[in-house]
Every structure is written in C-alpha cells, then in structure tokens.
Amino acid sequence: xxxxxxxxxxxxxxxxxLKGFGDFLASPYFNTNxxxxxxxxxxxxxxxxxxxKGLLKEIIYKKLFSGKQYNEQVMKNLISELLKLEKEFLxxxxxxxxxxxxxxxxxxxLTSREVSxxxxxxxxxxxxxxxxxxxxxxxxxxxxxxxxxxxxxxxxYNNRQSEATESIIKSGEYLTIFFLKNILRLSxxxxxxxFSFNTQSAINLTDNLLANLNIAKVIEYIDNNGxxxxxxxxxxxxxxICNIEIDNDIHYNTYKELLYSNIKNLKRExxxxxxxxxxxxxxxxxxxxxxxxxxxxxxxxxxxxxNNVYNPHEDSPLTTMxxxxxYTTAMRVGEHDWxxxxxxxxxxELNKENRQSIVSLALAQLHFSKKDYNKTLEYxxxxxxxxxxxKVDVKTISLKAFYELGHYESAISLGESFKKLLSSNxxxxxxxxxxxxxxxxxxxxxxxxxxxxxxxxxEKLLSKLxxxxxxxxxNWLIEKINELK
Length: 485
Description:
By secondary structure, the protein is mainly alpha-helical. Helix content is 72%, strand content 0%.
C-alpha cells in the first residue's frame, strides 16, 4: 500500500490532522464501520513516510483478521471506504475552519424559522467580522452579497416585502463589486502569464467581455457616487490598462502614484496583489528595453518588504521566483550590500525542497559581483533545478565567469548549449529569447576579437552592440569591450 491513494493522502496529514481524523472516524455520526477504524489505527504507525514491508496488504489483513484467509475484495472495500472518509474529513475540516461559510449557512437556515431577533444578530456579527478581516479581500463582497440575499429571503418569509428593496439593491451592489474586482484581477493575471510564460489562447471570454464593456464609465460612476471600494476598483482598472498598454507611461504613473499614496489604506492582501501587478508592469517595460525601470522595480520590492506583504503564516509566502527577482533587481541597481542582507534575512522562508539550490545561485551572483569568479562557479555547481528561468541564470553567470577567468573555449561551448535551451523551451517568450541569444552572440564576438588579437576592433564591437534593439547584460558587455582597448 506504499503507493496507494490512501497512504499518499495520509502522508500529507499533519499530526493534528491525523489526530482529528482519528476522532472523526470514531464518531458514529460520520462512520459506523469499526474495521475502517482498525485499519487506520494500524496505518498511522507508519506516518509520515508510509514505507516498509508492513504495508503489504496481506500483512495488514493478517493483523486485522488473525487466523482468517486473505480476502482481496474485503481489503479493496476497506481501502476504498477509508479513502472516501479521508476526503470527507478534509472537506468537512476545511468547512469547519471557514467561519464565513459557517455563518452564511447558519443565517440561510434561520431565514425560514421565524427567529428574526437571532437572524438579525447573526447577520450583524457576520458583516462586522467580514469587514474587519485582513484575508477576505477578494471574497468580501461575495460574502456580503450572500448575506443581503439571505436578508431579502428573510423578509419574504416573514411577509415584509416592502422592506426587501434595500437588500435587493445592496445585494446587487455587492455582487457587482465582487464581479468587477475579480474580473479585472483575472484580466491582469492573464496578461502577466502571456508575458511571463508565452501563453496564448484562441478563446478568451474574460478579455472579450471587458473589451465590450465600458468599464471606465462604471468605475467613474462608482467613484462619483461614493460606493465603497472605489479606490481598490480604480487601482485594479489602472493595473489592467497598464498591462494592456504597456508603453503608456501616463497610465503607469497614475497607477503608481495612486497605489503608493494609498498603500496604508489598503488591506494587506489587496496591497500584495496590486504591488505584484506593479512589478509585472515594470518587468514588461524592462523586457522591452527600458532598463531605467529597474529602479522603479527595486522601489516596489522595498515597499513590499516594508509593508510585510510576504507572510507564510497568512498564505502569502515568499516564492523562490520572487526571492530571485528581488535580489537580482537589487544587484541591477548597484545595491549589492542590500541584496546580501536580503538573501541572509529571507533565505529561511524558502521552501526546504529547493532552498539549497536557490540560495547557492544567489550566493553565486553575489560572489560574481565581488569578482570572486572561482567561488561563483563553485556555488553554481551546487544548483540543481528544472525551472527554466533559473537555468538561464546559471548559464548566464557561468558564461560571464568563464570569460572573466579566461576560459574561452568553455565559454564558447557553454554559449552553444545556452542557445539551444533558449530556442527549444516554449515557456520562454520571444523577447526574452532574443535578448539572451543576442547576449551569447555578443560574448562570442568579444572572445573572437580577444583570441585574434584584434583589440583595435573595440569600436566595431561597440557599434555592433548598439545595433541590437534588445540585449541583456549590456553594461557588462560594454565594460568587457572597453577593456579590450
């Protein structure tokens, strides 16, 4: 049973969940099959690895039914029932931990029970706690919509139709705000994925809907009439426009100024999402050749860290990609000491599975900035990853380190394998591919000039470099060309 669905799912259970599942099985409300309890009690001894001969079905059967001949069908039935209860437990446990779902279902039940006093008290508590929540940002107005819908039905059940109008209007307002916030967010994320992972879709209902709605007029109406969350909706609207019209600096500056000046007025989850969108806009501008936006990107990261938007205890951990983007951006703008402090402070928050490789890559980049190229290569050898953007980082830094050490043949060989990676991986966007291939070609030209003792060709190399509309590591390349003189 090492590879069965039952044990694979039990592997994911924490100690508290394992204990809770035992209590769940022991409750006759949820389970009346004592055999299932016995098989769980046996299996939990193998938690969390679930390996060893003791997990053979025949051995488990013998432990459970001493002296009886092995029956495959009985084991299949027990395993199937246990898996069903595991899934049921996770679903119910999740529901029990969602106070808003509990409260919404309670007020729904109270609508037809003629207990108006209790109903009013419960809806009052629900609205107060929902509005105070720091983690319910994207779902707040859906909760409020369902609450107002319950109020409407409560008035109908109690023959107060004339009092239902306000709830109808409010429920419509809340549902519209929920729709706008989430449809705008989805549109931004669609465009971010197009940019980051070169994803395209022939059918895109979200963008088609937005293209046929006058969202700007709706946002203006909300703003002019003092409808709640107008600030958040305006920011989401500008985030969407900026991701579509990436070269429009007027929209970008409006979005940035509005976000920076109101960051303290936003809930943590809202601030996190909107700052993430600002990052994406900066990255797209940089990718189109506007390197001056590295400064804006670095300022955005500083603001995020200052406002503690990354908190693993509140479902917003610092991802490995974000970790990489932050320290590399700091290095891009010359903040090497800041980058080193960041790496040392936040490395413990990375996922344990990839932590060693990610930190090794970061330290390799730091040592390169300190011109310790042998140490750079030493750290790069410790990096093991399937993430394409990390592979690009490894090859870029290795190529530069080989050049600095004078290992030109190794650099040329690496450059060829680098171009194959860039050409074959479908996740790499065309802009990103071209920028890096141009970089490899330029390094090869510099090496050729050096090997052929044609140092007087440095002006030709600079001219060739300037012909590229888009190229990565341009400042380093200029430095290496100038060294030829």
